[in-house]
Design goal:
By secondary structure, the chain is of the alpha/beta class. A 9-stranded mixed β-sheet has the order 1-9-10-11-12-14-13-16-15, with no helix packed on it. Strands 6-5-2-17-18-23-24 form a 7-stranded mixed β-sheet. A hairpin with a 7-residue loop joins strand 20 and strand 21. The radius of gyration is 36 Å and the shape is globular. It starts with 9 loop residues before the first helix and ends with a strand. The N terminus and C terminus are likely disordered. InterPro entries: Calcineurin-like_PHP, Metallo-depent_PP-like. Keywords: Membrane, Transmembrane, Transmembrane helix. This is Calcineurin-like phosphoesterase domain-containing protein. It comes from Cardamine amara subsp. amara.
Amino acid sequence: MGSDKHSSGLLDSLKMERVRTILTHTYPYPHEHSRHAIIAVFFGCLFFISSDNMHTLIEKFSVKWWSMYACLLGFFYFFSSPFIGKTIRPNYSNFSRWYIAWILVAALYHLPNFQSMGLDLRMNLSLFLTIYISSIFFLVVFHIIFLGLWYVGLVSRVAGRRPEILTILQNCAVLSMACCIFYSHCGNRAILRQKPLGRQHSSLFWFWKREARHSTWLAKFYRMNELKDQVCSSWFAPVGSASDYPLLSKWFIYGEIACNGSCPDSSNEISPIYSLWATFIGLYIANYVVERSTGWALTHPLSVDKYEKLKNQQLKPDFLDMVPWYSGTSADLFKTVFDLLVSVTVFVGRFDMRMLQAAMTKSGDATGREELLYDHLADKNDFWFDFMADTGDGGNSSYSVAKLLAQPKIKVPVANEYIFLPRGNVLLIGGDLAYPNPSAFTYEKRLFGPFEYALQPPRWYKNDSIAVDKPELPKGVSDLKSYEGPQCFLIPGNHDWFDGLNTFMRYICHKSWLGGWLMPQKKSYFALQLPKGWWVFGLDLALHGDIDVDQFKFFNELVKEKVGEKDAVIIITHEPNWLLDWYWSDDTGKNVRHLICDVLKYRCKLRMAGDLHHYMRHSSTQSDGPAHVQHLLVNGCGGAFLHPTHVFSKFSKFYGASYGSKVAYPSFDDSSKIALGNILKFRKKNWQFDFIGGIIYFILVFSLFPQCKLAHILRGDSFSGHLESFLGTVWNAFAYVMEQSYVSFTGVLMLLIAAILFVPSKISRKKRVLIGVLHVTAHLMAALILMLMLELGIEICIQHNLLANSGYHSLYQWYKSVESEHFPDPTGLRARIEQWTFGLYPACIKYLMSAFDVPEVMAVTRTNICKQGMESLSRSGAVIYYASVFLYFWVFSTPIVSLVFGSYLYICINWLHIHFDEAFSSLRIANYKSFTRFHIKDDGDIEVFTLAVDKVPKDWKLDKDWDSEPKLKLDKDSDSEPKQRFKMSHEREFPSKWCASTAQQDPVNTVKIVDRFVIHRSDKENGDS
């Protein structure tokens, strides 16, 4: 490009090598630089907004317009806030980002004051879209031609690798932005006017002149306009006239003439914007051809970007996020609801998998009992076992607990010293193995995946194999009694029963390994005989909340034949019916009660359960006689979202005995404070709720669009007058919905029914109706206020002639009217392109521009309706109008509906103690995870430790100790020579593959004891320590 004598000066003082270093990336080709170029273009735009234009913007300050800007940008920010700085499900988050950019630009270019900053958004937007479509057309044609040359063998075979469409679109966007920024600050002048260096500046910056002598930085900033002029005249000067390139003269767009008065002839100079565009296109083509036609592609089968991404993925675990329970777009949740309906209506009371298991098992003979009773651990010494429940939700939380369970020993602080707790010989899992529904995907990704990372299965084990003859023991182990590794026994929870127990049977009863834990069990319930006279009964309550007759018969016979009078029993169920029955004022588990009270007769020392995702322990106070159960323990902190504890703080009675709360984790006070997150974080945690919330709000106010009589709100002289008129209009709109509307009233009525049914049946019917009415009223008032704010914004723009002036395709019509003036085309290049593309090229530009005329379409249609009535609108016109209204109303309503609903949940959980499940599932809290470890001591008593981690790591890396530890072990057998074999994972010192990226956050280093007590096997008093 050309240059002139003014190219020196400030340009020479810039350290261009530093600029190149900052913007240059390791990627060798410019077409890989899209994201970095976008950043560079953005900062370039800010750099060229000169100070003398900024002060004009401040001088034209208007409270009305700035308030409108604040509201508009505020709503758009709150809508997009969950997607800033993170990638959440790219399909929805990317859609939201593009959606926001689209309708925000469409709104901003209709509002005033941006020309004060030197930005004509209307011209820039239309020019951007034109160059964008032209670039896409050109690059698509280029790629088609290049692939054709590859097909006939004229270029390297590696060139057949197809380019990514997203890369093409990104480069076209960067190219178009660069051209628009150049046009905004340099124009499309064929002959650039020389601007005087001594430019007059506003008195607003008079103090800079005085300080410029003493500050180099202030002097450079003060002379920013001089720098801009030099950049335009030296870097982007015209490349010459069309006569210099006679063969290409018909393929140029010309620049406009810069002259005072009338210009006798049209310009013969090539457009600087056209030359800039051609330069970028040429760079892209040149680098693409070089890459695909040389050996570079052979040595780099993947781009550096993809290679680094793939490498990072391999060094990071593929954990799933916590289940989004309030997602309106999750197929898993809809499947869960469907499975639950089928299970309740089809299986409950009609078909029970437990009956089928009983029919296939003859518990009276030895073979049948082996499938339910496991006594191979009865003679073990120094026996430890673990309990956890409700895993299989978020990968970070599930793996954190699984990693602690897998460690050979855990070092935990106690007072001023440390103690070591060895890994349990047996792991007991109390149900709800995967969320939200049982399926092959959820079991493999949410359950087996984290556990296999924590403790790998044997190398010879095949994950997709079915265990025909359980247990499948390692080579050299003769029977289950001889196996020294950790074992696992599980019971199903309510979520495991949603498919009739099908997935549980396939993955638990018909497979042998959960990670490195051997699974010997063959049925969904079991009895486990432990050392020192201890027993564990794992009961399957299904969806009935109780055991069936065959299950009761098995345990009844077992107690009579095997359980001694001085033995002690631990009963595991999925649901803690002592808490839930108290909460719901219900009476469930009658067969379980009969088993405990009448069959075991005070031999049940401990009941354990999950289902509630917190830790709580209640112990009998023995104030009103002996209790049938000494301790009641809930620990559902295996990986699922957190549940509150303060809701159950007043529980005190079970089976006629009194109990006192010993430990709650998190504490009652912390639990109440955590609930505040529903107000502050509901939408951030449940951004997919937008899909439902925005539609509901739009239905509530559908019949109120448009509001034609809003002028009285704007006539008031005081703020109180405006507010009074506004609130009066809100009340009138509410009355209209109740008295005359059909669609909105139906929406309100349906929402009211849903809100009343949503309130838990724990409280009386009158209170449920009252709470439902207040809940719906809050939503309706919020929707009405948002509707009036949107209508007021449109009304203000119409009154100031910013909208409803041109009609449909206003941007395209305006651009066509100025195109020939600013971008002369005397050779008819555009006409030829239109002919070659059969009219597709101008049609794409036209309809893409019309997408940014949404506010204009909304205002024009609104004005026509207000003048001629709704009857004058055609069906297609009505669809277009309501669709355009919905595009903006959806953005305004989604943050508000989440705020209102989150506030409702907070009030209910902390004041009314209802919605404990709904109010905490919305928060998706992965922290506060725990499990319980038991030690059977020599005297027959059990010492109990509950280990917890307050904060779960979110970022993991490959554990170097695990990676470097020798995998082979030397087996010394007296009958033969020593042989090397691969270690079983439980034999390793570092069994878990991943560790936290920050060592201080790793669960092994942050684990602590939150509860410690002793369970005595005899009837002597149980105590805490």
